[in-house]
Write a structure and sequence with these properties.
Elements lengths: L1 E10 L2 E10 L2 E6 L9 E4 L4 E4 L1 E6 L14 H11 L1 E10 L5 H12 L6 E8 L4 H12 L4 E5 L9 H11 L5 E5 L3 H13 L7 H5 L2 H17 L5 E3 L5 H12 L5 E5 L1 H5 L27 H12 L5 E2 L32 H8 L6 H15 L17 E11 L18 E11 L2 E5 L2 E2 L11
Parallel strand pairs: 1-4, 1-5, 6-7, 7-8, 8-9, 9-10, 10-11, 11-12, 12-13
Antiparallel strand pairs: 1-2, 2-3, 5-14, 14-15, 15-16, 16-17
Keywords: Hydrolase, Metal-binding
Pfam families: Amidohydro_1
GO molecular function, one term: dihydropyrimidinase activity
């Protein structure tokens, strides 16, 4: 067995001092003290917090987004995730128009199987709604996919309101969750045209073409559709605005209970002044072209307050990485041509722990980045809880470690990070995936123990 001794354990019953024993791919025992026997390997983790492995419920690895392939493969992306303390990702497989969901799932397995350091599960995104897809929802459920995604934006992906309603109604008997990208695509298309025609061509045009109203209207519409569907189970992904938050509050006030809310570090840390950054080559602002974009300081403040008040369920990353040079720079003179997405799967735990130091304790960090993602996406308690019998996905966190985020030292396969120079307080010291040590002090061990997680 592998014994993690003398740590502060973050358990469902609260913080406790003690030891954790990993036997193969399971947590075998949790106790105040576990006496080692011959052959046991002991790691003294005194001074550290021992978490169930963190879960990132929103990533896009090795994915064609309509403009380009993402820079991170499942191999590089899950390796980076593990280095930061994330032991499971839930990635968005996508059934493009003309592609069946089983075929899409097969393709994502071909991309991921045998290459991953962290575990991986799949949501299934639908780009069209038809009778075949309706029938295949049950097939997906049998294959371990219990969460799905639709879009209100992007012409090649979005469904209309009637189709979205039908998806919700079809998921209800399966107990499925619908994740929705909430931006009004018709308005975005028109505002992009207007902003460009006004002579604003650089990255600063991106947030102007996707104002808060586009998100809030789409969130409100989604939640009215969910109400019409009998309080359907929905997950609002990457919430970025106070107006959107107000729409969620309104839906909860009218009695809807099956609403889950996700936000991302970029909306808790950044604001829209980042688009004015130039850098040495004048391209720095391109790093922040992601959808939705970083918002106004008032939005950031509102989301932080909501997070501390318990109104936000999960923090994910929407990791969708593109290089500035050779990818994002093709839109240097036309923000509409910049591949949308940002990198963050490696740095999420440190960004959140540092930003909310003194406000969110270890139990809060566990709830937002491990327990709640496991609950929302059908993995709890085998993941998301430090309990005997659970999977041996464990992050030993050193809260006293200090380090600085830099593109030069990160493991994300991308030439920049939106958080360059951010000074972190706390780091993943030891990261175990299925009982194997996958990373130590931010560096990979070379092990690739990641497995598919059927949910």
């Amino acid at each position: 067995m592998r014994i993690l001794a003398n740590g502060t354990l973050v358990t469902p019953e609260g913080l406790r001092h003690g030891d954790v024993a990993l036997d193969g791919d399971k947590i075998a025992r949790i106790a105040a003290h576990i006496e080692p026997t011959d052959g046991d390997e002991v790691e003294d983790v005194r001074g550290c917090w021992v978490f169930p492995g963190f879960i990132d419920g929103h990533t896009h690895m090795q994915c064609w987004t309509g403009m380009d392939w993402t820079a991170d493969s499942f191999e590089t992306g899950t390796r980076a995730a593990a280095c930061g303390g994330t032991t499971t990702i839930v990635d968005y497989a996508t059934a493009d128009r003309g592609v069946t969901m089983p075929d899409a799932l097969d393709e994502w397995h071909r991309r991921a199987d045998g290459t991953c350091t962290a575990n991986y599960a799949f949501h299934m995104a639908l780009a069209e709604w038809n009778e075949r897809n309706r029938e295949d929802l049950a097939v997906m459920r049998e294959r371990g996919v219990c969460s799905f995604k639709t879009y209100f934006a992007y012409d090649h992906l979005r469904l209309d309101d009637a189709e979205t309603l039908a998806v919700m109604e079809s998921l209800e008997p399966l107990g499925g969750t619908l994740c929705v990208h909430c931006e009004n695509g018709t308005l975005v298309n028109e505002l992009q045209r207007r902003v460009y025609d006004e002579g604003i061509h650089g990255p600063e045009g991106h947030p102007l073409s996707r104002p808060a109203e586009c998100e809030a209207e789409a969130i409100s519409r989604l939640l009215y559709l969910a109400h019409l569907a009998g309080d359907a189970r929905v997950n609002v992904v990457h919430l970025s605005t106070k107006m959107g938050l107000d729409a969620i509050r309104a839906a909860k006030a009218r009695g809807q209970r099956n609403i889950f809310v996700e936000t991302c570090p970029q909306y808790l840390l950044l604001d829209d002044t980042c688009f004015l950054e130039q850098g040495e080559d004048g391209l720095a602002g391109l790093a922040y072209v992601m959808s939705p974009p970083p918002r106004k300081p008032v939005d950031r403040a509102a989301l932080r307050e909501a997070l501390l008040a318990g109104e936000i369920d999960t923090i994910a990353t929407d990791h969708c990485s593109f290089n500035i040079h050779g990818q994002k720079d093709r839109g240097a003179e036309d923000f509409r041509k910049v591949p949308n997405g940002g990198a963050g799967v490696e740095h999420r735990p440190a960004l959140v722990a540092t930003t909310f130091e003194g406000q969110l304790g270890p139990e809060d960090l566990c709830r937002l980045m491990s327990e709640n993602p496991a609950r929302v996406f059908g993995m709890f308690p085998r993941k998301g809880a430090l309990v005997e019998g659970a999977d041996a996905d464990v992050c030993v966190w050193d809260p006293k470690a200090t380090w600085t985020i830099s593109a030069a030292t990160q493991h994300q396969n991308v030439d920049h990070t939106p958080y360059e120079g951010f000074e972190c307080h706390g780091r993943a010291h030891l990261v175990y995936v299925n009982g194997e040590l996958a990373a130590r002090d931010g560096e990979p061990t070379g092990a690739m123990p990641g497995r598919y997680v059927a949910r």
